[in-house]
């Protein structure tokens, strides 16, 4: 083969190999984006400078990157523990660590990184539009599947029993609701129904998908935000009435 022919052939082969490499990266599923981006920031962007590493980690914490523990399919965890699909599952959300734990009784099965309302750092939810995540004990009121997935809401939605009694107590004290509305909320909670969703305390607070890696640490209007693949994983083990604790 002549030199003139060899050069374009080598170029074409290199291009094909390069495209194949790019495809393999883009088509493969990164199970843990948090560690992926952490490694990228620490070892590719900042070198060995400790102060730059710390600064990059702080920057990393400003985003809602996917992080699960253990990085094992939930179905396998439940199968290995010989638990039933309709077992005693409940949810614990820790707003300090921004994690949601799926539990069976008191045993934590798997933990997921979540996002809260964009103003959650200002305290507990008080009223409509404050973009804070409510704290306290709730239960799942309703469930919905969205196909295709919706922007910000994702592929799964689980409504929380907000406003709860504690929110109603604060609302009545602060004159955000009247006694009649308080009674309606109290009655709904007592009967494990959906509390009124048309009060000044806020409405439509739930657990949903929709997260992407360039979203801020807290990006929702007050809900618990998750990645679609994570909320889909827990969805079938959560039923209407499931207990949800947010602290």
Features:
disordered N terminus, L,D-transpeptidase catalytic domain-like, 9-stranded mixed β-sheet, 247 residues, single chain, 7 helices
What's the helix and strand layout?
Layout: H1 3-27, H2 33-45, H3 50-60, E1 68-69, H4 74-80, E2 89-94, E3 99-104, E4 107-113, E5 136-150, E6 154-160, H5 165-173, H6 179-190, E7 206-208, E8 224-225, H7 228-235, E9 243-246
Parallel strand pairs: 2-9, 7-8
Antiparallel strand pairs: 1-4, 2-3, 3-4, 5-6, 5-9, 6-7
Structural class by sheet pairing and helices: alpha+beta
Rg, nearest Å = 23 Å
Report the CATH architecture of the domain at 115-246.
Beta Barrel
Poorly predicted regions are 2-48, 52-57
Order of adjacent strands in the largest pleated sheet: 1-4-3-2-9-5-6-7-8
Q: Number of helical segments?
A: 7
CATH class of the domain at 115-246: Mainly Beta
CATH topology of the domain at 115-246: L,D-transpeptidase catalytic domain-like
- Helix proportion: 25-40%
H/E topology pattern: HHHEHEEEEEHHEEHE
- Please summarize the sheet with the most strands: 9 strands, mixed
Q: Got a strand count?
A: 9
Mass-distribution shape: globular
- The separation of the N and C termini measures 72 Å
Q: How much β-strand is present in the residues?
A: 15-25%
């Amino acid at each position: 083969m002549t030199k003139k022919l060899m050069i374009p052939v080598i170029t074409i082969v290199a291009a094909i190999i390069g495209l194949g490499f790019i495809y393999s990266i883009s088509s493969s599923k990164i199970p843990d984006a948090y560690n992926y981006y952490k490694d990228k920031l620490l070892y590719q962007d900042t070198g060995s400078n400790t102060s730059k590493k710390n600064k990059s980690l702080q920057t990393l914490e400003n985003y809602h990157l996917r992080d699960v523990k253990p990085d094992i399919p939930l179905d396998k965890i439940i199968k290995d523990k010989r638990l039933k699909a309709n077992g005693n599952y409940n949810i614990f959300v820790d707003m300090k660590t921004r994690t949601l734990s799926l539990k069976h009784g008191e045993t934590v099965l798997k933990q997921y990184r979540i996002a809260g309302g964009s103003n959650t750092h200002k305290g507990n939810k008080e009223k409509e539009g404050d973009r804070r995540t409510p704290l306290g004990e709730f239960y799942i009121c309703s469930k919905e599947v969205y196909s295709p997935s919706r922007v910000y809401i994702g592929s799964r939605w689980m409504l929380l029993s907000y406003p709860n009694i504690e929110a109603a107590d604060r609302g009545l004290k602060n004159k955000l609701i009247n006694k009649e509305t308080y009674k309606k909320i109290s009655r709904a909670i007592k009967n494990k129904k959906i509390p009124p969703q048309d009060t000044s305390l806020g409405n439509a607070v739930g657990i949903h998908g929709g997260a992407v890696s360039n979203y801020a640490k807290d990006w929702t209007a007050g809900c618990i935000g998750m990645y679609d693949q994570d909320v889909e994983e827990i969805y079938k083990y959560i039923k209407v009435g499931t207990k949800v604790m947010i602290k």
